[in-house]
Design brief:
Blueprint (H helix, E strand, L loop, with lengths): L5 E3 L11 E2 L5 H10 L5 H12 L13 H10 E2 L4 E7 L5 E8 L2 E10 L2 E5 L3 E3 L8 H4 L2 E4 L2 H15 L11 E4 L9 H12 L11 E5 L3 H10 L3 E5 L5 H7 L8 H12 L7 E7 L7 H10 L5 E7 L13 H13 L3 E4 L21 H9 L8 H5 L1
Bound molecules: iron/sulfur cluster (SF4).
Length: 387
């Protein structure tokens, strides 16, 4: 693949799953599936390994299942990932895929190699309803939640494409749910996909290598701790409610005090756990010394680390990136107050794959409904795919 190129990979419409799509079923759900068909529950582990470890999508190839069961699964079920429709590769090795999840909707997924790490950033919703003012995804509006098969399917596809290469730099070591959407507003599907990421019979990632990033849906932070306590990141971006109400409107529902209390509960009982706070650096908006002092005071009693994210511009964002010396000064204030702080390297900026730039192809619900009423479905993200 040439650096900085775009390639249309498939032009066929998104595939519909025939029968039950087993790709998105956790081990428990798969055990229930087989029990309901009079099969022993251990079939779930066999099938999980075929699907997620061998990445086999055809039941006929699952040779430790009986012939009858293979035939029945061929007739009643499928393993159907979403579909890659375009690939972009940055000069810095970052790869962005456009993933079609319906004829008229695509999400984006990004792989960031940083040897020995390789981080896969995946999406959880088509668009996003939360309207953070500095975010390209927010401009797309919200269409729908991704199903668990569409979420785990991104990892399934990325591993199939990257790990067939012998290059170590293409191994996925970490997963972040920081792509399009607010994962905690798609809770059940996200948790089912997380369970598959962690299950030793599926992808087998360590809990600390999977990070969920939220804008701060407080009740669901507690629920996540109960169900699947992966690493937590919070998009904070402001040190006080007045500014955060403006940048992250969800703050009006769950103000900073409640959010930080939920963060403390999340890591309580494990002295090694920390919450990562993401803070996008917007010139003249949230980047002064006073903001840094406020932030340090706010986080003083929360086990935390801070990621400063140089703002990545997109058309008509209305914001500018803070200059490097301002970001450095901000970081130094936090460090001097004992807050572990790093400045995130900007990766994939030349292919619009950097933090906050993911946009995909999202057809707003109202437009889709109008198209349906008029007896036509709008073309599959035609403008974007033809660019
Ligand atoms: S920053 Fe995250 S939560 Fe906010 S609008 Fe963008 S995708 Fe949604």
């Amino acid at each position: 693949m040439n650096a900085h190129d775009e390639h249309a990979v498939y032009e066929s419409p998104a595939r519909e799953a025939a029968g039950t799509n087993l790709l998105g079923l956790s081990r428990t759900a798969l055990e229930r599936y087989f029990e309901a068909r009079g099969e022993r529950p251990f079939r779930a582990v066999q099938v999980l390994k075929w699907i997620h470890q061998q990445r086999i999508a055809r039941f006929a190839a699952m040779t430790n299942l009986s012939k009858d069961l293979r035939a029945r699964l061929e007739a009643e079920a499928s393993v159907t990932p979403p579909e890659i429709v375009a690939v972009h590769e940055s000069v810095d090795g970052t790869i962005k895929w456009l993933v079609r999840v319906a004829p008229d909707n695509c999400v984006e997924m990004v792989f960031i190699p940083d040897t020995p790490r390789g981080t896969l950033c995946i999406s959880s919703q088509v668009g996003c309803a939360l309207n953070c003012t500095f975010c390209a995804t927010a401009r797309q509006g919200f269409n729908r939640n991704l199903g668990s098969a569409e979420i785990i399917g991104q990892l399934w596809l990325a591993r199939s494409m990257l790990e067939s290469s012998s290059e170590r730099s293409r191994t996925i070591t970490n997963i972040v749910l920081m792509g399009m959407g607010e994962p905690l507003l798609n809770f059940d599907n996200v948790v089912e996909a997380l369970e598959l990421m962690l299950d030793d019979n599926a992808h087998g990632f360590a809990r600390r290598r999977v990070t969920l990033s939220t804008a701060g849906v407080v009740p669901k932070i507690d629920a996540l701790r109960q169900r699947c306590p992966v690493s937590l990141a919070v998009s904070l971006h402001a040190p006080n409610d007045r500014l955060r109400d403006e940048l992250v409107p969800l703050n009006k529902h769950y103000p900073i005090r409640d959010l930080l209390a939920a963060c403390r509960r999340y890591v309580a009982g494990d002295p090694r756990e920390k919450v990562t706070f993401e803070y996008v650096m917007l010139a003249g908006v949230n980047d002064s010394r006073q903001h840094a002092l406020e932030l340090a005071a706010l986080l003083a009693d929360v086990p935390s680390k801070v990621n400063l994210i140089p703002f990545n511009p997109f058309p008509s964002s209305g914001y500018r990136r803070s200059p490097e010396h301002v970001i450095d000064a901000f970081r130094d204030v936090l460090l001097s107050r004992g807050i572990m702080t790093i400045t995130r390297k900007t990766r994939g900026g030349d292919i619009d794959a950097a933090c906050g730039q993911l946009a995909g192809v999202v057809q707003p619900r109202s437009q889709r409904m109008r198209a349906r009423r008029a007896g036509r479905l709008a073309p599959a993200g035609a403008e974007r795919l033809q660019s």
